[in-house]
Write a structure and sequence with these properties.
The chain is mainly β. It has two domains: 140 residues, Elongation Factor Tu (Ef-tu), domain 3; 49 residues, Membrane-bound Lytic Murein Transglycosylase D, Chain A (Roll). Helices cover 10% and strands 37% of the residues. It is built from three helices and 13 strands. A hairpin with a 2-residue loop joins β9 and β10. The longest helix is centred in the middle third of the chain and has 10 residues. The chain starts with a strand and ends with a strand.
Length: 219
């Protein structure tokens, strides 16, 4: 699914990588932060400038502030906007092999955040909501929402992406399966497709009408 655009302005949007459910923001972020931690350790070299030893690369984090407003129609901004974003934090997805020690313990959605050429596959760590305007009966009409995500990092995800403008996760495509289409006819390695979409039975779980993540081919 393509992002919603208003004129020539691309809207930011969230999409569940597990179910394909999408959430388009009402207004684009008023501020945006991206952080990629890389840990180094200083050696205890007495009397000289300390040398550095690489420790690890941690998953990136992304934080943005969104505004939602229903003053035009007087509806509850929670029901119209905020709760739909919060649905992506519901622990309703069965984890795949390697994701958890207890596979019967459900997790929240893996989520794509897309804004123009920026894409990040991650999980929502927090949704902090401040209501700033209310109707006479107390119904909230305006909300400022701070969303924080952590990258679902893939191996070698920061290799060159050919100038495609990716800040975070490795380039992928989204595919809506057509009638009669099979997992082996997606154009990507079917094993990678099954792993990216938590398909325990790739033959029977790949179904028409569902949205699937297609990992980029390794070069």
């Amino acid at each position: 699914m393509a992002a919603t655009s208003g004129g020539s302005v691309s809207k930011a949007w969230f999409q569940s990588a597990d179910t394909g459910a999408t959430f388009d923001v009402q207004y684009n972020p008023t501020n945006f932060k991206f952080d990629k931690p890389v840990s180094w350790k200083e050696h205890d070299d007495q009397g000289v400038v300390s040398s550095l030893e690489f420790q690890k690369v941690s998953p990136a984090t992304m934080q943005c502030e969104l505004t939602f407003d229903t003053t035009a129609n007087g509806s509850d901004v929670r029901q119209t906007w905020v709760n739909k974003l919060l649905e992506l934090t519901n622990p309703e997805i069965t984890p795949g092999s390697g994701e958890a020690a207890e596979l019967d313990k459900k997790r929240p959605h893996k989520v794509w955040f897309t804004w123009g050429s920026f894409e990040l596959l991650g999980v929502i760590e927090s949704v902090n909501v401040t209501y700033t305007m209310f109707a006479s009966d107390g119904t909230p009409l305006r909300a400022k929402v701070n969303v924080k995500m952590k990258e679902w990092a893939a191996e070698n995800s920061y290799a060159s992406s050919g100038g495609e403008g990716y800040y975070g996760s490795e380039p992928v495509k989204l595919l809506t399966a057509q009638a009669g289409q099979t997992i082996t006819s997606t154009g990507s390695d079917w094993r990678a497709v099954a792993d990216a979409n938590n398909l325990n039975d790739p033959i029977n779980d790949f179904k028409a009408g569902e949205a699937y993540v297609l990992p980029a081919s390794k070069k």
